[in-house]
Amino acid sequence: MVQYMDNKNSGFNMWNANRAAAQQKKSPFSGFLWWTVLFIAAWWAIGAIMGPRNTVDQSDTITVVEDLSAVPVSNISSDVISADVQGLRISDVRLSQYLASPNGDENVVLLGGDGNYIESGFVSSGTTGPVATTVWNNKGDTYTWSNSDGVVFTRTVSADGYVITITDTIQNNSGHDISVAPYVRIVRDNDMGSASGVSNGAIVYVNSDVEDIAWTKLDKQSYAYSTTNGFAGFADQYWETVASISSPDQTIRIKHGGEKYISDTAAAAMPIANGDTATLTTNIFTGPRDNSILDTVESKIPGISETIDYGWFWFLARPMLWILNGIHHIVMNYGVAIIIMTILLRLLMWPLTRKSYVSMAAMQKMQPEMQRIQKLYANDKMRLQMEMMKLYQTHKTSPMSGCLPMLIQIPIFFALYKALLVSVAMRNAHFLWISDLSAMDPYFILPILMGLTMYIQQRFQSPSSSNGNDAVAQTQRMMRWMPILFTVMFAWMPAGLVLYWTVSNIFGIIQMQIIKRQSK
Questions:
Q1: Last residue of a domain, one of 306, 337, 356
Q2: Whole-model pTM?
């Protein structure tokens, strides 16, 4: 290498010689232009690095840990929940009607664990308000605290169903006017691994519109909203915790702070003249994402019934879930309810399925004539299409009529998929060897049965083709792989959905046999 570089005829020496010659020919202006371009590039890079970004700033990522050891803990409860109250904070909300695991005896706990809580407090002007470490005087569900100015804060915390209502009364005896701005803050961990296919993360209702924010989005940036009224909180697959302040002109912020996710709602300041009393109300929902329950909460937290995401086919998902729950009230088992609902759906589609099979049989009879037309007009595409249309009209059939039942089942399938995923009642629902119909079959028995029944149905449904090279035969060869593909796809889907598809296949096999006998 050294010998090559020392060689006068080497490429390296020739490049150096050309470079030196080029430098001698440069004008002073070219050097000035080079430094100008370099300065602009450096200025742009510094601006891109140091400029403002739509992310959580460093101050938001600092979590302050308060010492609440001196603040006593009391308990509130209703017929369905119980929760711990510690000063301004509420935590460890236990849902008495839902078990944490199918075979366990512990209830679901929302806002459990260290650092997870709801805090409802005040930002005061002209006086001092209570903080998280403030020790209140407690008598039953009523808490009282007075500051050095003579301002008396009286708080009542009560639970009705899944709604916790906090009513604050501020009596101004300070001798001068003050103002108090209420806020409510929800701090918790994320729950990314608990759901699939369902909106999971922060949930905001602003200006009569619901917005879902995924945990991954909150990792990248914070969100801020202004609204006359609304609510904010967090939602998992089956549970949600939202808080609503009965006060106008609210500012809502959702952010990721340290190891926690924070929903912060602040309302406009309320002036309180000397000697006057003001009352503030905050409603908090901590419970299941069940439509019948959320509808009853709508009067206290407007818009909460819209927080469940039923997907594109919501207009099918909601009535299907209503029918499924209605059948369950009779048979008392969701697996049996899915079977009955599947049979009812297939009975409704019976005329279409019969038409589909008759159309496929007609297409089979048309094969010789179709082949003759294809050979006769192979060089005239326009005439070929016209003759094929005449043939379809003569036999009163269409290539698409055989696909009609499958096309109709697509929206039904996706609607039922969403309905099963968001249904709290389906959680931990037993059926035969399956302990949870909303989760995958742990032994993969149902997916295999689904694949086998799909293969058998395919064999019965598709008329055999005499010509191995025609379109029907090519379609049949392609469709042979569908049972295997669907078995793999459905292996990790909710067992209730696989049960629906398996029963639908079995019903289809029986249906095909009946239609064949009627046709003969």
A1: 306
A2: 0.73
